[in-house]
Automatic annotation (TrEMBL):
<dbReference type="InterPro" id="IPR001460">
    <property type="entry name" value="PCN-bd_Tpept"/>
</dbReference>
<keyword id="KW-0328">Glycosyltransferase</keyword>
<dbReference type="InterPro" id="IPR036950">
    <property type="entry name" value="PBP_transglycosylase"/>
</dbReference>
<dbReference type="InterPro" id="IPR001264">
    <property type="entry name" value="Glyco_trans_51"/>
</dbReference>
<dbReference type="InterPro" id="IPR050396">
    <property type="entry name" value="Glycosyltr_51/Transpeptidase"/>
</dbReference>
<keyword id="KW-0472">Membrane</keyword>
<dbReference type="InterPro" id="IPR023346">
    <property type="entry name" value="Lysozyme-like_dom_sf"/>
</dbReference>
<comment type="pathway">
    <text>Cell wall biogenesis; peptidoglycan biosynthesis.</text>
</comment>
<dbReference type="GO" id="GO:0008658">
    <property type="term" value="F:penicillin binding"/>
</dbReference>
<feature type="transmembrane region" description="Helical">
    <location>
        <begin position="74"/>
        <end position="95"/>
    </location>
</feature>
<feature type="compositionally biased region" description="Pro residues">
    <location>
        <begin position="641"/>
        <end position="651"/>
    </location>
</feature>
<keyword id="KW-0378">Hydrolase</keyword>
<dbReference type="GO" id="GO:0009252">
    <property type="term" value="P:peptidoglycan biosynthetic process"/>
</dbReference>
<keyword id="KW-0812">Transmembrane</keyword>
<comment type="similarity">
    <text>In the N-terminal section; belongs to the glycosyltransferase 51 family.</text>
</comment>
<dbReference type="GO" id="GO:0008955">
    <property type="term" value="F:peptidoglycan glycosyltransferase activity"/>
</dbReference>
<keyword id="KW-0645">Protease</keyword>
Amino acid sequence: MWRNPFKRPEPEQDRWTERDLALESAPWTPLHGLDDDDFGPQAAPPRHYDRERYREGWRRFLPERARGRGKLWWASRIFAAIIAVFILLVAWLAITAPLSKSLEPIAPPQITLLAADGTPIARNGAMVDEPVQVSELPEHVVQPFLAIEDRRFYDHWGIDPRGVGRALFMGVGGGSTITQQLAKFTFLTPEQTLTRKAREALIALWLESWLTKDEILERYLSNAYFGDNMYGLRAASLHYFYRQPENLRPEQAAMLAGLLQAPSRLAPTRNPDLAAQRYALVKNAMVAAGYITQGQADAMRVPELDVRTRNDVPTGTYFADWALPAAREQSEMNYSRQTITTTLDSNLQAAANRVIQRAPLGGAQVALVAMRPNGEVVAMVGGKDYSESPFNRATQARRQPGSTFKLFVYLAALRNGWNPDDRISNAEFTEGSYQPSNSNGRYSESLTLREAFAQSSNVAAVRLFNEVGSEAVIETARELGVSSPLPEGDPSMALGTSTMSLLELTAAYAGVAANSFPVDPHAFAAEEGGWFDWILDGQGNLGSSDHEAIEDMLRTAINAGTGRAATLSIANYGKTGTTQDNRDALFVGYAGEGENRLVVGVWIGNDDNSPLGNVYGGGLPARIWRDFMRAALGASAAPPRATPSPDPSGPVQPQDVPELQDIPLGDNRRLIINDEEAVLSTDIEGVPLEVRVRDGAFSFELDEEAARREVERRVEEAGQQ
C-alpha cells in the first residue's frame, strides 16, 4: 500500500511525555545538540522525526512541487544546467574570441599612399609579412622560442602550473604559456587585472581544444611584436638580418627569440648591449632544455645585423593623416602590405609647398586646400611645418570664416528673388542692440548687391540677412554641405562668426563652381555611378540665372573689389574674409575650366587666436592664392608678357647653375627669384609691399587696404595730439 513519505504518522500518546507534547506544539527549531534523553525517559523519539525536520530545513526554500523529487531527478537537472552553462560559454568564446581572429595581424598592416601619378607620398602602419609555417622552419629556429618562452609547450593544455611555479621561484621562463600569450595579444587588452587573466586562461583552453599545437605556434610567431614596428617572425627576420625565417642561422633565431620579452627596449638596432645580454639568457635556456650543449652555446657569437632601409618615404603628411582613416576602411585586414592611389597631384602639392614657404608669414600659421569641383582633393597644407606640428589646420581647426560666409547670405537672397542690381542700404547702424560697422569706416545711402558683395560691406550683409531671414541662409549653407552649427536668428552669422573648417568652407565653394552640391571632399577617386545612381544621388543645383548671378558677384569681388590682389589673367572667382580684430584672414575662390578647374581655400591665423596685425583676407591670403593658381594653371593664369626672340650671337646661358628661389634678407624682407620674375617682399611702416621685376620692367603691389588703415590710424593719432 502506497504511503505518503511526507506525512507523519500519528504519535503513540502512551509513549510521549508532556515535554514531548510541548515540543510538538512549539515552533520548529533545528534539533542539533539534542540527545535521546531530552525526549523523555521512556523511549527515544521515532527516527522519522529527525529526518522530517532536517528535510524541511533546506526543502522549505523550494517550490511545493519540487520538494518530493528524488535524487535521479535532481542529478538530471544539475547535469542539464552544466550543459547549458557550457553551451553559453562556447557561444561567448565564439563571439569574443573567434578562431579566425588569431589569423589576422594584431596591428594594421603598412599602407603606402601614392599620388595620382604613382609617386609614393607616405607610408603608415606596422610592418607585417606572410605567416610562417612551422613545418617549413628548421628546428634551430623554433627551439629558441620554446626554450625561453614555453619549454613545455607540447606537454600542457594551454596553462602550465609548472611553468608558473618556475617563473615565480626560479626566475626562469615566463609565467604565461605561448597559448596564453597568443590569447592575450590577439583577443585581450593589455590591462593587468584578475578578470583579464581569467579570460586569458579560458581562451587559452579554448584555443588548445580547437587548434593543433603547430597551428597555435604558427599564429604566435606570425603575430608577435619584435620591435622597430616589426610584427611577425618573417618581417622581423627580413628587417634585422635581411633573410627569410626559413634561412635563419641558429644565433640569429636565438637573438630574435630574446626580443619578445620587451621588444622596444631590447631591439638590437636601439640597445645592442641589452639585446646581447638577453641573447645570452636564451642560449642558457636552450642548454637547460637540452636543445644544445654548453659547448655549442659558447660557440654561438652575437650575430651581426643587416638592416636595410625599406621605408624611405615619410610616415606622415597633412594629406596622408587625413586620408589614412578612409584608406584603412577600404583596405582588407590581412598580412600583405597595400598600396592605394590617392587624388593628390604631386606637382600641385609641390607648388603649394613652395608658395607657402615663400610667403612672409612671420609667426602665423597657414593652411591651403585645393580640390576639383567634384571634391577630389589635389593639394593640402595644414601648417608651415609638419615635423614641428602635425595638427592639420585645414581639416581639424575650426575658425571663423569671416566675410567668406557672405556667399551663403547673397546666394540665399538670389534664390529668394533678388538680383545683383537690386539696391540695399549701406548706411551706418545707429539703433538696435547689434550695430555692426564696415571695416573701412565708409558708408553710403545704398549699394547694389554686386557692389556690396565686392566691397564686402558688413552693414549691407546684415541688412540683407535680416531681409532674407536666418532660416533661408542656414538652409542654403546646409544644401552646400556646411554641417557645422549655425545659430538661428543671430545676425552676426552674416559676417562669419560661426566656426567651421577650411576644408568644409572650400567644399561649399566647390559646390558653386560645379553647380552641383553638396560636394564631399575625398582623397580617393570615387567610382562612377550608373544612370540610376545619377537619378537618385540627391544632388542639388542652382538655376541658370542664379548661378550666373553669383558667379558675376564672385568675379566682381576678385577683379574690382577686396580680392584684387588675387586677380588672374583668366576667369577667376573668389571672396576675401577677415574676422574681428584680424584674428583670421582667408581667401576662397576658383579658376580654370573643365577638368583643370581648381577650387582653393587659403587661411592664415595664429594657433592661439591672437590678432594678426596688418594681415587681411585681401592681402597675403589673396596673394598666396594667386601665386598657387599661377603655378597650378600655368601660363594661362599669369598676365601676358612679351617673349623675346633668342639671340644666337648672345652669351651662352648656363644650364647647370642651381636656381635661386627664396633668399631671406632679414627685417621681414625676402627676395624671391623664379623663371618669370624677381620679387622683393617687404613692408613700409607695417604696410606690405611687393616690388616685381619682369622683363626689365618694375611694378609695385601695395596692400591698399592695409595702407588705408595705416593712414587712418596716423590721422587719428594726429587729431588726438
